[in-house]
Amino acid sequence: MNLKKENIKWEELGFNPIETRSMFMAKCSVDEKWKGGSLVPYGNIELSPAAGVLNYGQGVFEGTKAYHTIKDNIVLFRIQRNAKRMEWSTQRMCIPKIDSDFFIDAVIQTVKDNIGYVPPYGKGSMYIRPIVWGTAPALGVRAVSEYTFVVFVSPVGSYFKGGIKPLCLKVETNFHRAAPRGIGNAKAIGNYSASLYPLTMAKKKGFDEVIYLDAVNGERVEELGSANLFIYKDGVLKTPKLSGSILDGVTRDSVCKIARDILGVKVLETDVYLDEMLEADEVFCTGTAVTIAPVGKIKYQNRVCEFSSGSIGPIAKKCKEALTSIRRQEIKDPFGWLHIINKNKKI
Ligand code: COI
């Protein structure tokens, strides 16, 4: 959708791309390091039909956000963590490694050039999507010789339709998201295409998303297609440990730290069994796009479990309040998570 920023209704933002002024673009061949790049008008990209990304899925992305704060600053949240994950994801997919400094500089340039698209304080955020893919042609399966890196942005509101309404989820027993020693812990585009079929089937039956189980024996919960998962029971907050098939989510890590250090809650990154989840007092999910979303109902085979009496549970609420207040500079940022973007100075 190409909207002039004057015509954007900030209160009505969902999670759909809105074209902005510009995007960052850089190219790199396999035997070079990433350097240079520039801002170009937001627009379509020409690709060979034999491009590595189209034929063999050689691409990875990131998701991060810029916020307008109560102090009228524009801030990035834990951008170094996204940068580190991009380093790992590119290496895992045989894409020339995007170093943190190059990544962060590209993100800042893009946000600054599109600064008017950061929603006003309290009205959504600017979603930032860095993405890199293999552009050179390949017919045989191999890592290609040329890559393109783009950073584009879009103002966004709630990821799920219905805003903060607790989610209705299905435990997926027919499909897995990722296997041990696969690419589940890289932000590879293929992880998301693999989740489309189970997601589409679940949505047809009225569910918002699905919960995946481990691919070894299907006893442990892993994550949703679009977010990490937490359960709370008897004073302990648990989230599936980073076993290799789980994405090391930035919001996941932030919730662990907020719960431990601000709320004084015991947090375990551990195996989380399906039975434990179904018996939990509270279940919620976390992600950059999703933020912190309460789970109201989970269906597993013929069993339906309800949580938190249809509203956000107390632990999710406290974590969400703390996280939102830090991002909006309403309270001190005790962890040094914010990077303030200087709106006026050129970087
Ligand atoms: C994010 O939370 O930023 C993600 O990349 C997940 C994606 C499914 C929207």
Q: How would you describe this structure to a colleague?
A:
- The protein has 347 residues and is an alpha+beta fold.
- The protein has two domains: 10-156, D-amino Acid Aminotransferase, Chain A, domain 1; 167-327, Alpha-Beta Barrel (D-amino Acid Aminotransferase, Chain A, domain 2), CATH 3.20.10.10.
- The chain has helices at residues 52-56, 79-92, 100-113, 189-194, 196-204, 250-262, 274-278, 314-327; strands spanning 22-29, 38-41, 59-61, 64-68, 74-77, 125-134, 146-156, 167-172, 209-213, 221-224, 228-233, 236-240, 266-270, 282-287, 291-300, 303-306, 338-341.
- Strands 8, 9, 10, 11, 12, 13, 14, 15 and 16 form a nine-stranded mixed beta sheet that branches. Strands 1, 2, 3, 4, 5, 6, 7 and 17 form an eight-stranded antiparallel beta sheet that branches.
- Helix 2 packs across helix 3 and helix 6 (250-262) packs across helix 8 (314-327).
- The radius of gyration is 20 Å and the shape is globular.
- It starts with 21 loop residues before the first strand and ends in a 6-residue tail after the last strand.
- The model has no long low-confidence stretch (mean pLDDT 95).
- It binds 2-OXO-4-methylpentanoic acid.
- 2-OXO-4-methylpentanoic acid (COI) binds at residues 63, 226, 287-290.
